[in-house]
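Example S7 (C-alpha cells).
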C-alpha cells in the first residue's frame, strides 16, 4: 500500500522486477512487499485474467498515489510517518481478517516463522521497508507526482548495482548499457525539472536506495521462501507499524492526531482501504501476467500518472523531461527483455 510510492506506493511491478534480477517493483505508496520466488498458486484462490486485473491494478495504483498527494498537499495533512503507520496498521488487521475469511492468505501456512527467522530476516527487512515507505511518502511534500514517477525509473538500476556489489548477479555489457540509458534518462528528467527541490530529490533517492536494498536482502535472507505480496504484507505490516510507531513521537509527535478530525476519519479510512485493495490486486496481477506484460502495464500506469499530475495538480513538465523519461522507459523495457532471456 503501501500502503504508500508511498512504493504506499513497493507494487506488483517490484515483485516481477525482483524475479527478473535474481531469476526471480512502486510508489507508492505502500509498496507491496515482494517475495524471493514466485509463490505456489493456491487452489482456493479465484483466477482472473490479465485483461481483467491489469486495468483494476492500474486504477488502484494510480488512485493511491493521487489520493496520498491530495491528502498531503491539498488537504495539508503533511504527516507521512503517521499516514504510513496508519496504512500498515490497517494492512496488519486486514490481512488477518482475510486469513480467517478467505483463501487469499493461505500461503502463510507454508511459512515456518521461527523466532530466529523473525530476528534475522523479517526484522531487518522490515526496518528497510519502513525507511523506504517513510522517505518515499515524505518526498511528496517536496516534489510533484510526475517528477517522483520519473525518479522511480531508477529503481532497477539501484537493484542491479546492489546485486553486482553482493555478486548476486554478474555484470554484462548489455546490462551496463541499460544502466547507462536509464541513468542518463533520469538525469535529463532531473535537469529539466522546473521545480527541483534538493531535499525532495535526496529524500526520494534515499527511498530508492532503501527499497532496492530491501529487495536484494529478501533474495539473500529469504531465498526459496514462497511469499506472495499479501502473505508478505501479513508478516511485515505489524513489524513496520511498530517500528514507525516508535519513530512517530520523535518526528511528528501528537500533531497528526489533532488534525484527524479536521481532515475527517472517513478520508483516512478510505485512503487506507484503497491502498489495501491495491495489495490484493497485486496478488492476482503477479499470477495473471508475464514479466513483460506487467512491466508494460507499469509503464502505462506511470504515463497516466504523469499525465494526471499535469491535469489534476497542474504539474509542469518540460520537453527535456519527456525526452529523458522516454529514454529511461526504453532502458526499462530492454532490461525486462534482457531478464527474460
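Recovered sequence:
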Amino acid at each position: 500500500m503501501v500502503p504508500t510510492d508511498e512504493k504506499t506506493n513497493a507494487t506488483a511491478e517490484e515483485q516481477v522486477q525482483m524475479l527478473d534480477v535474481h531469476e526471480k517493483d512502486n510508489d507508492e505508496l505502500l509498496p507491496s512487499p515482494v517475495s524471493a520466488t514466485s509463490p505456489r498458486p493456491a487452489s482456493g484462490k479465484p483466477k482472473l485474467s490479465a485483461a481483467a486485473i491489469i486495468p483494476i491494478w492500474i486504477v488502484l495504483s494510480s488512485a493511491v498515489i493521487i489520493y496520498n498527494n491530495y491528502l498531503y498537499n491539498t488537504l495539508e495533512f503533511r504527516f507521512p510517518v503517521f499516514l504510513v503507520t496508519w496504512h500498515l496498521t490497517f494492512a496488519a488487521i486486514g490481512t488477518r481478517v482475510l486469513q480467517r475469511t478467505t483463501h487469499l492468505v493461505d500461503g502463510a501456512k507454508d511459512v515456518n516463522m521461527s523466532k530466529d527467522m523473525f530476528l534475522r530476516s523479517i526484522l531487518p527487512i522490515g526496518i528497510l521497508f519502513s525507511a523506504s515507505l517513510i522517505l518515499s511518502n515524505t518526498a511528496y511534500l517536496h516534489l510533484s507526482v510526475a517528477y517522483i514517477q520519473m525518479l522511480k525509473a531508477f529503481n532497477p538500476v539501484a537493484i542491479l548495482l546492489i546485486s553486482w556489489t553482493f555478486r548476486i548477479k554478474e555484470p554484462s555489457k548489455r546490462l551496463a548499457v541499460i544502466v547507462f540509458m536509464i541513468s542518463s534518462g533520469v538525469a535529463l528528467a532531473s535537469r529539466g525539472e522546473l521545480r527541483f527541490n534538493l531535499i525532495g530529490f535526496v529524500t526520494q533517492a534515499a527511498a530508492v536506495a532503501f527499497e532496492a536494498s530491501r529487495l536484494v536482502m529478501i533474495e539473500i535472507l529469504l531465498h526459496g521462501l514462497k511469499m506472495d505480496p499479501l502473505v508478505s504484507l501479513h508478516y511485515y505490516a505489524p513489524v513496520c507499524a511498530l517500528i514507525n510507531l516508535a519513530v512517530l513521537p520523535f518526528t511528528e509527535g501528537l500533531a497528526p492526531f489533532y488534525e484527524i478530525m479536521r481532515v475527517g476519519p472517513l478520508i483516512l479510512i478510505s485512503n487506507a482501504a484503497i491502498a489495501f485493495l491495491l495489495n490484493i490486486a497485486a496478488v492476482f496481477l503477479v499470477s495473471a501476467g508475464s514479466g513483460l506484460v506487467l512491466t508494460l502495464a507499469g509503464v502505462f500506469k506511470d504515463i497516466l500518472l504523469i499525465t494526471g499530475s499535469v491535469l489534476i495538480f497542474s504539474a509542469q513538465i518540460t520537453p527535456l523531461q519527456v525526452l529523458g523519461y522516454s529514454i529511461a522507459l526504453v532502458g526499462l523495457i530492454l532490461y525486462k527483455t534482457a531478464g527474460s532471456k
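Notes on this example. Residues 1-43 have pLDDT under 50 and may be disordered.
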